[in-house]
Inverse folding.
């Protein structure tokens, strides 16, 4: 059931929610939290679809806040709130309200969202894109016990990690961290199978993927060893190699679906490490609403410290230079006298001694 409200208020939206529940025969509220999604019109559909899929595990009231950009100066001074209320089949297992804000009310979204929060239920705020640098100080983020961002959607993801570390507040988390949960579980299980000392680690993955940096920082923080970050063509994380006192341990995933775990002295094993959808990531994040101390410790380790710790232990390998046919077939140009580094100029020639008479 859908109800469209134009130029409305928060109290009218609440009344529409009650009427919608009564119309479908479920007047009771059986939701466990309020999920606030702050996004733009372009990404609203994908974010709402992921939230609806996650609501099958966590029934929630989903409030989608879409801040519309006003084109003319007069529109910027005119406040308006349009709402779309969905209950029943159209809202998954909970309730959904899409709020479109115009004009000055864009800067006061918290005043619109506050009356619509479920009483005595935790609040989670999720920014799929364009997250604030300090989520806890954002007006909407201040209402939540849990604040979810995604540095993978940032223009400069690795630099965004540094900003997240500086502004970290208990309750902050990131979907780039959630993406590496299966990797962390598998690596921890691999180390539990052998008694060894880890000397060095290499994390391989595509460029501009903050999950690779987060996994490397987690390993460096927990193992206290140099961790090298190397690049590959992806997709996502492709391999983790650990050098230990009993032999190498490798977790290699070349295709983004199936990985191979190799431990010295044991047969190779195939493990499922499929790249997960956003709905699965959100469902995992909503399972726990307490601060993630492990994420905080890995984030505060820092990308700069990661690079500094790996530099002395992992010198750049001398890779063979690729063959370029055009240059290989071209004849070598003879250096001119001015370009010849071995040429001795007259100023540098030693004085000639005359033979004694």
């Amino acid at each position: 059931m859908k109800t469209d409200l134009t130029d409305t208020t928060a109290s009218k939206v609440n009344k529409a929610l009650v009427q919608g529940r009564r119309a479908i025969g479920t007047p009771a509220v059986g939701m466990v939290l309020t999920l606030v999604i702050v996004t733009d019109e372009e990404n609203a559909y994908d974010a709402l679809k992921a939230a609806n899929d996650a609501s099958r595990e966590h029934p929630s009231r989903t409030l989608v806040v879409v801040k519309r950009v006003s084109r003319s100066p007069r529109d910027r001074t005119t406040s308006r709130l349009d709402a779309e209320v969905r209950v029943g089949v159209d809202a998954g297992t909970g309730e959904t309200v899409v709020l479109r804000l115009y004009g000055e009310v864009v800067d006061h979204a918290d005043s619109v969202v506050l009356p619509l929060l479920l009483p005595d239920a935790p609040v989670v705020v999720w920014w799929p894109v364009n997250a604030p640098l300090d989520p806890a100080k954002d007006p909407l983020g201040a209402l939540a016990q849990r604040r979810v961002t995604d540095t993978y959607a940032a223009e400069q993801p690795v630099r965004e990690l540094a900003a997240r570390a500086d502004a970290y507040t208990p309750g902050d988390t990131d979907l780039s961290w959630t993406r590496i949960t299966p990797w962390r579980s598998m690596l921890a299980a691999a180390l539990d199978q052998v008694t060894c000392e880890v000397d060095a680690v290499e994390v391989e993955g595509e460029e501009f993927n903050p999950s690779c940096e987060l996994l490397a920082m987690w390993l460096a923080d927990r193992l206290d060893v140099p961790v090298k970050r190397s690049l590959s063509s992806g997709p996502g994380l492709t391999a983790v190699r650990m050098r230990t006192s009993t032999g190498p341990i490798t977790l290699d995933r070349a295709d983004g679906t199936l990985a191979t775990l190799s431990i010295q002295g044991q047969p190779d094993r195939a493990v499922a490490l499929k790249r997960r959808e956003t709905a699965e990531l959100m469902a995992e994040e909503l399972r726990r609403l307490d601060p993630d101390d492990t994420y905080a410790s890995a984030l505060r380790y820092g990308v700069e410290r990661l690079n500094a710790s790996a530099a002395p232990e992992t010198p750049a390998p001398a890779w063979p230079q690729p063959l370029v046919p055009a240059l290989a077939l071209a004849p070598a140009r003879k250096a001119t006298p001015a370009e010849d580094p071995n040429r001795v100029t007259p100023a540098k020639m030693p004085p000639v001694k005359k033979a004694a008479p």
Remarks:
- Residues 10-23 form the longest helix (14 residues).
- The first strand starts at residue 2 and ends at 5.
